[in-house]
Every structure is written in structure tokens, then in C-alpha cells.
Design a protein that fits this description.
Helices cover about 35% and strands about 30% of the residues. An 8-stranded mixed sheet has the order 4-3-5-6-7-8-9-10, sandwiched between helices. It has 6 helices and 15 strands. Helix 1 packs antiparallel against helix 2 and helix 5 packs parallel to helix 6. The chain is globular, with a radius of gyration of 17 Å. Bound molecules: D-MYO-inositol-1-phosphate (IPD). D-MYO-inositol-1-phosphate binds next to strand 5 and strand 13.
Length: about 250
């Protein structure tokens, strides 16, 4: 497992370096939607990660935001978001990350999230307390909802905004602060290390939260992940410190 974790960290650092070097430079935009952008740098970062991981583990497959590689029916599958927080990145907002998980059959075994601006690396493997830059982390112990700081994601389409907005409107009155920071993977990493007490979003993709799922659970929290019947390949997620009652 250590070899997998080391390689995932190396890939995250490599992609993170590419993102950092090109941050606040002119970006090539490949596609534009009302509430989303697709950047060429996303693809370059995923290519870098794919090369490193599949050269090291040629029998593995990769399932990423920018496409798939290898035989998807294989037991070992890397789940990758090469740039989570793409819109932040494009607008020069220094809040984005690289997220890499390894799924074996149906279980996440490795999770790595790297913020290249703050140089924060969360990493974890199944059954072990995850670490932030080498130091063990734990979820918060805040149980009182009125004292909580939580993140509510709005995702990226009119449909998901409509699904998430009522949640935000409800929660904003119950907690101390709601945050919408624009990177689901960092939201999960922040829950894992106790900065946020919870993170909620409807209409999220697996690559956004796969690594964070392992980190939050192994840091003592809980993750309720449910596939959406009404949105293809999308999920609803409630990740929390496990002691707070969100009253959802
Ligand atoms: C998005 C971010 C955002 C979340 C969206 C994601 P991307 O990922 O994580 O915070 O609300 O649901 O799709 O497009 O920046 O990789």
C-alpha cells in the first residue's frame, strides 16, 4: 500500500507543480457553460498523472474528470480530479487542488488531496489515520449545530443549483457560517482535518470526492454518499465529523 500512496503523492505533487507554474497565466479554454469552464490545463494535468500512475502500475485503470485510461473492468482503478476548483483557478483565486484516489474493487484504499498554493498534502490509506503534511489529522468534535461552520456546494448546472440552494437557505440559519469555496475535494479535506464540521452537496461526481471520502472516514468522520437517480453519474453527499446532527 505504501508504494501506491507514495506514487499517488508524487503524481499529485507533479500535477500541482504544473498548476502552480501556470496559475494566473493566460489559460486556453476548451469549453464554456453557464456555470462552468473546461481548461486545457486540466487535460495536461490529468495526462501527467496518468503517465506517472500507469507507467508505474500498467495493469491499473484510471477514471478521471478528463477521461478514462486502461481497462475499466480491472480491479485497481485510480479516480482522479486533476484540477478541482477549475473556475477558481481560471479567475486567479488561490483555492484549488489535485485529488487522487485508488479504488480496489469497490473500496477506496488510498486518498491524496494536494493544494499546491498552500503546499498542503492530505494523504491516507485504508485503516490508518490520515495525515496533513505528515501530521495525523482528526475531524472536529463540535456537536452543536449553532457553532458549526459547514460548506454547501452548488455544483455546476442550473439543475444542481436548484437542488442545492434550498439546502443552503435552510442551513445558513442553523449554523454559524456556511461557506461556498468552489472545491469539493478541499471541502472534504477540510472536514477531515477539522476546519469544517460538515460538507453537503447534491450533484457531485465521484472524482470530486473519492479521495476525501477515505480521508474523512479515517479521520473519524462519516460520509453518506448516494447515487442520484435523476442525474447521470452524480451523487448526493453529506460528509461530517460524525457527531453533529445536521437535521437534514
Ligand atoms: C467542482 C468543484 C465545486 C463543486 C462542483 C465540482 P471542478 O469541480 O468541486 O466546488 O461544487 O460540484 O464539479 O469542476 O472544479 O473540478
Amino acid at each position: 500500500m505504501k508504494h501506491y500512496l507514495d506514487t499517488a503523492e508524487e503524481a499529485a505533487r507533479g500535477a500541482g507543480k504544473l498548476l502552480r507554474q501556470n496559475f494566473r497565466r493566460q489559460q486556453r479554454v476548451n469549453a464554456v457553460a453557464a456555470h462552468d469552464l473546461k481548461l486545457e490545463i486540466d487535460i495536461q494535468a490529468q495526462e501527467l498523472i496518468t503517465k506517472l500512475l500507469l507507467e508505474e502500475f500498467p495493469e491499473h485503470a484510471l477514471y478521471g474528470e478528463e477521461g478514462v485510461a486502461g481497462d475499466q473492468s480491472t480491479e485497481h482503478q485510480w479516480i482522479v480530479d486533476p484540477l478541482d476548483g477549475t473556475v477558481n483557478y481560471f479567475y486567479g483565486i488561490p483555492h484549488f487542488c489535485v485529488s487522487i484516489a485508488l479504488r480496489l474493487r469497490n473500496e477506496i484504499m488510498i486518498g491524496v488531496i494536494y493544494d499546491p498554493i498552500r503546499e498542503e498534502m492530505w494523504s491516507g490509506q485504508k485503516g490508518e489515520v490520515p495525515k496533513l503534511n505528515g501530521h495525523p489529522v482528526h475531524v472536529s468534535d463540535r456537536a452543536d449545530l449553532t457553532e458549526a461552520v459547514i460548506s454547501v456546494g452548488l455544483a455546476k448546472t442550473g439543475e444542481t443549483i436548484n437542488a442545492n440552494f434550498p439546502l443552503l437557505q435552510e442551513m445558513i440559519h442553523r449554523v454559524r457560517k456556511c461557506r461556498i469555496l468552489g472545491s469539493a475535494a478541499l471541502d472534504m479535506a477540510y472536514v477531515a482535518c477539522g476546519r469544517f464540521d460538515a460538507y453537503i452537496e447534491q450533484g457531485i461526481s465521484l472524482w470530486d470526492i473519492a479521495a476525501g471520502w477515505l480521508l474523512v472516514e479515517n479521520a473519524g468522520g462519516t460520509v453518506d454518499l448516494r447515487p442520484r437517480d435523476d442525474m447521470k453519474d452524480k451523487y448526493s453527499i453529506v460528509a461530517s465529523n460524525g457527531v453533529i446532527d445536521l437535521k437534514l
